[in-house]
């Protein structure tokens, strides 16, 4: 018998994340989302200039889908 695993929405991308050992980054869905969230509040609280931001891979300047 397996109990249904409760899910929580990822604070970054709002994807449902299973609240179980399978999700080491919970409540985030992934390490990437965790770093993005961490980076956002670090930015707001500390204002570190020149810090590399997580999630850079979301923007690809070479993308040609115009
Ligand atoms: Zn996420």
List the helices and strands and how they pair.
Elements: E1 7-9, E2 16-18, H1 31-46
Antiparallel strand pairs: 1-2
Zinc ion (ZN) binds at residues 10, 12-13, 15, 28-30, 33.
Description:
The chain has 66 residues and is an alpha+beta fold. It has a domain at 1-46: 2-Layer Sandwich (Erythroid Transcription Factor GATA-1, Chain A), CATH 3.30.50. It is 24% helix and 9% strand. A two-stranded antiparallel sheet has the order 1-2. It binds zinc ion.
Q: Which features characterize this protein?
A:
alpha+beta, flat, Erythroid Transcription Factor GATA-1, Chain A, 66 residues, 24% helix, 1 helix, binds zinc ion
How many β strands by DSSP?
Answer: 2
CATH architecture of one domain: 2-Layer Sandwich
Shape: flat
| CATH class call of one domain | Alpha Beta
CATH-defined topology of one domain:
Erythroid Transcription Factor GATA-1, Chain A
What is the first-to-last residue Cα distance? 51 Å
Content of β-strand:
5-15%
- What is the CATH superfamily of one domain? Erythroid Transcription Factor GATA-1, subunit A
**What small-molecule ligands were found?**
zinc ion
Output the radius of gyration: 16 Å
What's the quick description here?
The chain has 66 residues and is α+β, with helices and mostly antiparallel strands.
């Amino acid at each position: 018998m397996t109990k249904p695993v409760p899910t929580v929405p990822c604070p970054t991308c709002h994807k449902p994340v299973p609240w179980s050992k399978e999700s080491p980054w919970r409540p985030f869905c992934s390490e990437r989302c965790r770093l993005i969230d961490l980076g956002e509040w670090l930015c707001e609280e500390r204002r570190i200039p020149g810090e590399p931001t997580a999630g850079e891979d979301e923007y690809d300047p070479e993308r040609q889908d115009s």
